[in-house]
Amino acid sequence: MTDCIFCKIINKEIPSSVVYEDEKVLAFLDITQTTKGHTLVIPKIHVQDIFELSEETAADLFSRIPKIARAIEKSDPAIKGMNILNNNREAAYQTVFHSHVHLIPRYDDQDDFSVHFGNHMADYTAEDLQQIANQINKQMEE
């Protein structure tokens, strides 16, 4: 893809701070540095999001993440944890439409990054949850 910023980074048309690279995957520092060490991991093949990711490309991408995450953690003793985030499509805050995974080191609860998980447990009965699971399960067979 000619206008994809990540493809341009892969092709070395745009500079980046690379932390890992092999024939299938590239990992580099996010220029926003949400927290120090914030890294993006991308497949070298252009694919828009998780919905277009083949099993093979997903295996290539996700199999490298633990190694990269451990390296980030070891690089700074102040790191206390890590969020691994993958946004898909605009409604989920994807802004660069080349599939990528964010590795965001966490230093403490004041490090300018947060995730909110609403608790809607009271809104769903066990039967409601089973119906949702059945709907998803049916799609797994197709």
From TrEMBL:
One term of GO molecular function: catalytic activity
Gene3D superfamilies: HIT-like
Chain span(s) of sequence motif Histidine triad motif: 98-102
GO biological process entries: nucleotide metabolic process
Active site: H100
Source organism of the structure: Isobaculum melis
Transmembrane segments: none
One Pfam family here: HIT
Start and end residues of each HIT domain: 5-115
Signal peptide: none
Protein name: Histidine triad (HIT) family protein
